[in-house]
């Protein structure tokens, strides 16, 4: 008897997915920029009183989902503000309509639209667009990471090469619950004495891109969601960063660590030690 197997649909090239991700991110960024002046008009909270969401977040996510699914109606989607759809194509879009909403609310120029394309469970293309500055970070699997900034030529990104842990500039972020922040603050108090210094920008996606651009040498943060790190982690990895979870676990379980290879071993060991 001859068996009949269902045909597996062809998977799109990462470059084609990136092109769509960038187009959608640029459209959403226009919406977000236009909504900045009224950002405080409709604000609600989620997990805690400091975990805010604005009407612009919701509108940006709606635009992103519509744009992506209009172009590829068989795809799945996962978004921070509730978008969730199973697809049949093997492609899933992971979107953060405004990563850094508190920055957006306060007009601190570090908030981004993040769009990643996952193919068969693996992120293959990602775009992170800082709405406030116009900087666009992009990556495809195997295609490197790139930065396009207004008034400057496009450049390929590469991580820094700090010679030692005490010369390592570190970025991190904090959770929204008081108990979680108390524990994270204790870790930072110890960490800051053993590295060059610490920065806290307020956007996980942009923190990961900062590692890719050599603006910081390492980044770590607990309890991120896929939309927080999907695109940024690919950008960091394609720029040469060592990107893992805690103790070598997969990314996001329960932490995201992105670090320059020259200090990857000692930095991961230190972060593991401080989180025991």
Kindly describe this structure:
By secondary structure, the chain is an alpha+beta fold. It is built from 7 helices and 15 strands. It has helices at residues 14-34, 55-71, 101-106, 178-191, 204-212, 226-238, 264-274; strands at residues 43-45, 52-54, 76-79, 84-85, 91-99, 112-119, 122-130, 136-140, 144-148, 155-156, 169-172, 197-199, 218-222, 242-244, 255-259. Helix 5 (204-212) runs parallel beside helix 6.
Q: What is the secondary structure topology, with strand pairs?
A:
Layout: H1 14-34, E1 43-45, E2 52-54, H2 55-71, E3 76-79, E4 84-85, E5 91-99, H3 101-106, E6 112-119, E7 122-130, E8 136-140, E9 144-148, E10 155-156, E11 169-172, H4 178-191, E12 197-199, H5 204-212, E13 218-222, H6 226-238, E14 242-244, E15 255-259, H7 264-274
Parallel strand pairs: 3-5, 11-12, 11-13
Antiparallel strand pairs: 1-2, 3-4, 5-6, 6-7, 7-8, 8-9, 9-10, 13-15, 14-15
Q: Round the mean pLDDT to the nearest integer and report it.
A: 92
Helix percentage = 25-40%
Strand content: 25-35%
In the sheet with the most strands, the strands line up as: 4-3-5-6-7-8-9-10
Q: How does the major sheet shape up? A: 8 strands, mixed
Spans of at least 5 consecutive residues whose pLDDT stays below 50 are 1-7
- The rough form would be described as globular
- Pattern of helices and strands: HEEHEEEHEEEEEEHEHEHEEH
